Amino acid sequence: MVGCEMAAAWSALGSQVTMLVRSGLLGGLEPLAGKAVQAGLKAAGVDVRSGVQATDVVREAGMVVVTLDNGQTLECDELLAAAGRRPKTDDLGLETVGLRPGSWLDVDDTCQVTAVDGGWLYAAGDVNHRALLTHMGKYQARVCAAAIVARAQKNRNCQLSRTSRGRRQRIVRRCRRLSLLIPKSPRSG
Questions:
Q1: What is the rounded distance in angstroms from the CA atom of residue 86 to the CA atom of residue 185?
Q2: pLDDT value at position 43?
Q3: Which end of the chain is more exposed for a tag (fewer CB within 10 A), N or C?
Q4: 3-class SS at 118?
Q5: pLDDT at 155
């Protein structure tokens, strides 16, 4: 994803861009989306090469020389490596619920983690590897909240209580078995 963003940006700024793609673009999304983005990049003048990767990179006489696994070489002024993203789930205690620390969390369409029995764990944002875009975490959090509220309305373990703030009263639903997991984005360090 970041590689696509940078290729489009540098191309728009007037640079001649060659993009090396090991497999399909936007691997976490539908293949059709990757093909559409690839077509758009090519239309913008980006040389997209699929199914290749760099095996060696050296700087010689001010130029960067990239050797590809197919034996070809590329010469360029600069090299930008978009190495992908990793989930920052190492220190969340996932092992206590049978999940592997440092791994992506598989979720359903409501962002409920599928590998945890009981349906009490939700994961929004980059940690679920669905759509690695900053604004998508916000939308996924809304989906989680809607799912949690809908589930809470049906859940026998939930209790209604009234709280007062001045003249206004509000109903608070307390659920003991629902959790929402929104870890730091890998980009935020």
A1: 9
A2: 93
A3: C
A4: coil
A5: 60
- Can you list the domains of the chain with their CATH numbers? 2-76 (3.50.50.60), 94-188 (no CATH)
Distance from C-alpha of 173 to C-alpha of 176, rounded to nearest angstrom? 10
Count the Cβ atoms, other than its own, within 10 Å of residue 88.
17
Smallest Cα–Cα separation from 173: which of 140, 149, 143?
149
pLDDT recorded at residue 39: 92
Residue 173 in 3-state DSSP? strand
Q: How buried is residue 60: exposed, middle or buried, by Cβ count under 10 Å (0-12/13-18/19+)?
A: exposed
The pLDDT, as a whole number, for residue 28 is 67
Tell me the backbone φ, ψ of residue 90, rounded to 5 degrees.
Answer: -60, -40
Listed residue (108, 115, 145, 129) closest to 183, CA to CA: 129
Nearest alpha-carbon partner for 6 in 36, 17, 32: 17
Residue with tokens 């936007």: 26
Q: In the chain, which residues have pLDDT < 70?
A: 28, 83-84, 132-133, 155-189
